[in-house]
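Researcher: Sequence of RNA helicase follows. Predict its structure.
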Amino acid sequence: MSYSSNYGAPGVPAPPGTLYNTANSTSTYNGSSTAPPSSSTYGNGGSSYTSGTYKNSSSYNSSSYSSSSRYGNDRGVDRSYDDRSRRDRKEYDTRSSSYRDRSPTYDSYGGRDRYTSSSYRPGGSNSYSNDRMSNLGSGLVKQEWDFSKLHKFEKNFYREHPNVVSRSMIEVEEYRKFHDMKVFGRDIPKPVETFEEANFPAYVLKEVLDLGFKAPTPIQSQGWPMALSGRDVVGIAETGSGKTLAYCLPAIVHINAQPFLEPGDGPIVLILAPTRELAVQIQQECTKFGKSSKIKNTCVYGGVPKGPQSRELSQGVEICIATPGRLIDMLESRRTNLRRVTYLVLDEADRMLDMGFEPQIRKIVDQIRPDRQTLMWSATWPKEVKKLAEDYLHDFIQVNIGSLDLSASHNITQIVEVCAEYEKRAKLVKHLERIMDQKDNKTLIFTGTKRTADEITKYLRQDGWPALAIHGDKAQSERDWVLSEFRSGKSPIMVATDVASRGIGMIY
Ligand code: ADP
Ligand code: MG
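Model: Prediction complete. C-alpha cells:
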C-alpha cells in the first residue's frame, strides 16, 4: 500500500498501518522549521515568580484580567486575588521563607516527600513484563488523598463575553454544524467565534493577535470555553487543527490564578505527550504564550542525559511537558513531584496508547490529586481512549470536530495501492523515481517496524538513494541528526517508524 501526499498541511499524520508513505512536496518545505529550542527557562534576571492576578470578576472587558503585574516589580493591584493568594500561601509558608532563599536542591525538602521506595504495583494490566518497562514506576507509592488537607484551588475562570451571551441557541447550532462540530455532555458552554470572545487576559490575547492568526480554529472556539470553565474535557480533532493552543492558553490562565510555586513544588500544569518531537513542539507554544506571564516550562523526555532536565525541574517550573517513561524516572528519583498538579493534559492520547504507554500513563495519573482538571486531546476516538477517559475524567464534556473515524488530514491527496508483499520494493522504487525526479522534493517512508525501516534504508542506499532511517532504537542524537539532514534536504529520503508520524509537518 502506498500513499502519495502533498504536504501543504500544518501537520501530517501517519497513515495508520501504512507500509510506504511517499510524500511529494514541491513547495512547502521551506519556512516554519522548528529549530530545537534552547531549554525552556526564561532568563528573567533572577526575578521571583510574580503573583497571579487573574481576577475572577464578573465584568466582561479584558481589563478583568490585570496583566500589568506580570512584568517586573509591579505586583498585582487586584486585591481580591492578592487576598486569596496570601491566604492560600499560608499553607506553604510553613515550609520556607521565600523562593529566592531556597536551597538549590530539591532533596533538602525530602522530609515532605511521599515518593519513597516502597512498591506500588498497579493491577495486572502491564503488558511489558519482559522488558525494563515492567519495573518502571514500581518505586511510586500509591497516593491516598485526604481532601480536608489538600489546598483549595480555582479552576473555573470562564465568563461569557456579551456577544456570546446574546447569541441564540439556533445560531450556536448553525455555527457548530458549519464547522462539523459535535458536543457531548451536560452544560456545555457555547463556542466563541473570535479571540476576543474567549475573554483571555490582554497579555495572552496580544500574543495570539501578534502571530497574525485570524480566528480560532473550531477545536479552539469550542475547546477554550470548555477548558476555561474548569471542566474535564475531551477534544477530538485531526492533526494540525490547533489542539495545542486549545489547552495551552487556558493552562496559562489557570497557572496565573494559582499561588506561587514554593521550594520543592512540582509543576502546576502537566502535559503528557507521546514523543520527544511532539513534546518539544508543545514546549515552543508554551514558551511563546507563557512569556509575558514569566511562566517557566520544561520538557522532559528520554534519550538524552537527565541532568539538565532534572536541574530545570528542581529550579521550579509551572509547566512540565513530558513523555511518560522519563517522567516516571524523574518521579522515582524524586527530581520532581506531582502534588501541585491541578491541570493535567493528555495530548495525542490515541498515539500514546498505540505506543503502549497506557500502564505508564495510569501510574502517573494516579499520582495526581483526583480533583484536578483533566483534558484529553486526540485525533481519533478508539475504544481504548474512551476507556481511559471514562477512568480518569469526571463528568467530562466532549467536542469532536469532523468525522470520528477519519484520522488522516483532509488536505492530503492519498493514493492507495494494494499489492503483494514481493511487489512492494519495486513499486517503492518506481514511486521514488517519479517523485525524486523533481528538484527539492522529499520523501517520507513509513514502516510498521524498526527492522523494516532499517532494511528498506539499507536496500535503498545500496541502490544509490540518499535515504536515512529514524526510529525509537536510534540514539536521540542520531534522530536529531537524521531530522536535520532531512530538513535541510541533504538526505531527502527519510524512512521512519511512527515515532516521527504525528506533527511531522512541523519539522520542516
Ligand atoms: P494539532 O495539535 O491539532 O495537531 P497544532 O496545535 O500543532 O495542531 O497546530 C498546528 C499549527 O496551526 C501550528 O503551527 C499552530 O501555530 C497553528 N495554529 C494554531 N491555532 C491557529 C489559529 N487559530 N489560526 C491559525 N493557525 C493556528
Ligand atoms: Mg498536537
